[in-house]
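Could you show me just one protein sequence together with its fold in C-alpha cell form as a worked example?
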Amino acid sequence: MTDYIKKALEGNYEDYTEFLIKLVDDEISSKKIPLREAAEAIVEEAFYQLREHKTALDKLMLDANANIDPPCKDDEDLERHTIDAVVEEIHRNEMYISEKSGTVPDQNRI
C-alpha cells in the first residue's frame, strides 16, 4: 500500500492536504519546476492511486465534504479542489516568508 493510500485511509482531508504540500514542496526543490506543475503531478498521481482503492477515496471524500463549502460532487472535483488548495497554501507560505525575510520570493513557488 502506498503512502497516498495509507494517508487517505486516516480519513482526514486537512492532514492529507498537508501531506501533499510537503511532497509538492520537495518536488519543486528537487526538480526546479513551477508550483502548479509540481502540484498537478503529485495530486494527479495520488488520485490515480486512490481511484484504485475505493475505501481510501471514500474516507477522504467524506471528510473533505464535511469541511469544504460547497462540497465536491465527485472525485474529479475533489482532485481539482486539492490541486488549488495545495497551490494556494504553498504560494501563501512563500509570500509570507518573503515578506518576513525581506527576500525575493522563489519564482517556482509563486
User: Anything to note?
Assistant: The longest helix spans residues 75-101. Residues 48 and 79 are 10 Å apart (CA to CA). Helices lie at 3-9, 13-31, 35-51, 54-67, 75-101.
